[in-house]
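quick one, 84 residues, struct below
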Amino acid sequence: MKIEELICAEVERLSKKFGKEFLELKDVMQITGLGRDKVREIFNSKNFPLSNYGHKQTVSIMAFVIWQMKNNTKGDLFKTDEEN
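---
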């Protein structure tokens, strides 16, 4: 299965599960199993694709899935055959 197919499948799964296209802090806590303080730390990290809408912080499911895959695989899934 190609990386694009994996991403699309996971985005579809999470979109159906949560019934929305953007995740909030509590949603990311539920997905990752991490506590509020750790997820807030992640939300405030430089490389996290956070969107701010007034006082509300969200992340698109697509951006979250890509971020999570890059961080959990050290980016290896996104390298081309020439780079491997």
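The CA atoms of residues 24 and 54 lie 13 Å apart.
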